[in-house]
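Hello forum,

I keep getting stuck at the same step: I have a sequence, I want structure tokens, and every attempt I make locally crashes halfway through. Rather than fight my setup again tonight, could one of you with a working pipeline run this one for me? It's a single chain of 202 residues.
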Amino acid sequence: MRFLDPKAAASPRPAPAPDPADSIPSWLTAGKPRRHKAASSVNRFATLSMRSCLLRSWPRTALLASAAAFAALFLQTAPASADLRLCNKTPSRVGVAIGYKDKKVWTTEGWWNVPVNSCETLVSGTLVSRYYYVYAVDYDQGGEWSGKYVMCTKDKMFTIEGTEDCVPRGFNRSGFFEVDTGEQTSWTIQLNEPAQQGANRK
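Reply #2:
Ran it on my machine without issues. Output:
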């Protein structure tokens, strides 16, 4: 038989050590639900990011498509270039002067130097006259393309108003040949060898 010490019997029993799990906050121990929540947030963020990228790229794609459509429409509706041009189809370099009536004033201009197998624009923009007059000289072989319409010219670059009194005013008298554009808004003169129809090759 064992006898207990009365003092030992009266002393309180030591309190049990706290369970370490009891001192950990519940949000740390609830790891599994937390991981599910984090995964859900990542998926939601990825979905929103994808939608954002699509929304950002859509206007850019639509803008490019609209720009392409507008460019195609512009090319279809843009008016063709309206000029009076002369193309040199001869084996020589030529100098060209033109005459025309602008409103009520006759004007002659020159010179355009046109190399072999090339073209020059003599009048830019929509043609304002039906008839234009041309005088050309051959720089390499000599001679000229001329006609019966006498107008004023000069040896150097010139713009002369009026066709009368060429010599008294210090200019040369030159015969121009007529070009009928048929009231077209643009026209190309082909300077050939033999001479242009309506012109005399001298």
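The chain has two domains: 20-77, 83-201. If your local run keeps crashing, start a new thread with the error log.
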